[in-house]
Structures are given as structure tokens and as C-alpha cells.
Amino acid sequence: MAQTKSTYSAAPSYLQKHPLFEGWSDVELGLFYEQCDRIEFAEQEYLFQRDQGCVAFYIVETGAVQMQWQTDTAQVRPLHYRTTGGAVGDACVLMGDTYRVDAIALEPTIAIRITKQHFYAQLAKHPWLMMRLVSSLSQNLCYLFGDVMTMQSVSGTQRVIHYLLDRIALKNQQRIELDRSKAHIAAALNLTPEHFSRILNDLIKKEFIEVAGRQVVIKDVDGLLCYRR
Q: How many CA atoms lie within 13 A of 39 on its CB side?
């Protein structure tokens, strides 16, 4: 791990666009950013581990970070995947005193480290920022509730189809480059990797899609939209 102080005169665009900083002026965010640290993580290095004291969260600048849960039998379950602009550990900072999951760099990664103390001090100075944050968190909770309801009421096949079609214009021969591994996508859809692979193979056999590595070609949009299983 290598640590340097931020030296930019203005906050980078990925920080400006993050929901946690919605409504902050350029000056406020620039001054805030100057007090943060840019940290380099090697591949497979932990940003933090479960049950460690929660003192900071991170915004990914470059690279990729996986948040994961390790079971009592040492099995690792991927939970979330973050690339440029994604926040890691922010929920833990807002919720309590310890991290609930592990966060590990999947490749060489640079992240902005934002301490709990620094973030809360800024909110205390500007109560309206706290109100915006509460509003954003409430909206995210509504989205999460909708996702949970979808997971309970929609089949695994329909979840995969929605995932694919949500990323393209609805016409044939569209190509999708999966931005993460199939195991990560399966976890995000609440599927096992094996179940996810079976669904893809079924869609391939129906000639709805073609798959080569992380490339997916949508051959029959109408077929996917009408398919029920």
C-alpha cells in the first residue's frame, strides 16, 4: 500500500458525480478533496477486512475492488464490484463502528480514502448536505426494496434476460461486453455461478444469444422478451 496526499486543485469528476456529494459546490468539494489521501493497492491487497474498526471509506479512482463475504467454511461469496467512481465501505461508515465485509483489490488499484471524521465534520458544517444525504439514502432504500421484491418474484432466467436487455438498444445483433466476471454477475442476480451458466447455455440453445468469453451478442430480442421459464 502506498499513500500520497491529494494535490489536485479541483475534485475529479468521478467524485463530483457520486451521490454522496450531490449538491456540493466545486469549492467545497475541492477543499474537501485536498484533505483526502490517494492510496495505491496491489492486486489481492485488502482495503479493509470484516470486523476491523470502520474509520474510512474509499472511492475507486482506477482499478477494481470486490466486496465479499467469507463463510465459516472459508468459502468466498462475491457481493459487489466497484470500478472508477464506485464507493467502498461507505455504508459501513454510516451504519456503525466495524466493517461488515471484506474489500479486496482485484487488480492494481488507486482509491481515495475519506475518513469518517473528515466526512462527518463537513456535514456538521453544512446541515443541508446532511439533508441531501438522508434523501439519497432513502431513495436507495426504495430501490433496494424493489430489487428484493424482484428477486423474490422473478425467475432466474428473467433476471438474466433483464440484465442483458437493460444494457442495449432493443434491436438484434447488439454486442455486450461484460464488465466483470460471470461469478460476480451471478452474485449480483442472486444466482449461483452454475445456475447462471445453465441459463446462458439455455438461451444459447434457443439461439437468442451467442457468448464468447465476456462478449455477448443478442441475436433475437423479440425471442428474449417473449421467453418465459
A: 22
- Only one residue has cell 439455455, namely 202
How buried is 155 (Cβ within 10 angstroms: 0-12 exposed, 13-18 middle, 19+ buried)?
Answer: exposed
C-beta separation of 44 from 1 below 8 A: no
94 conformational bin, left if phi > 0, alpha if psi -120 to 50, beta if neither:
alpha
Beta bridge partners of 62: 110
pLDDT truncated to tens, each residue of the chain (229 aa)?
A: 766 666 555 788 888 888 778 778 888 888 888 889 999 999 999 999 988 998 999 999 999 998 888 777 777 777 778 888 888 988 788 777 788 889 999 999 999 999 999 888 888 887 777 777 666 665 555 544 445 445 454 688 888 888 888 777 667 888 888 877 788 788 777 788 889 899 999 999 999 989 988 889 998 888 888 887 7
Q: Kindly state the cell numbers that stand for 92.
A: 459501513
Question: Do 131 and 22 touch, CB atoms closer than 8 A?
Answer: no
Residue 56's Cβ-side half-sphere holds a number of Cα atoms within 13 Å equal to: 15
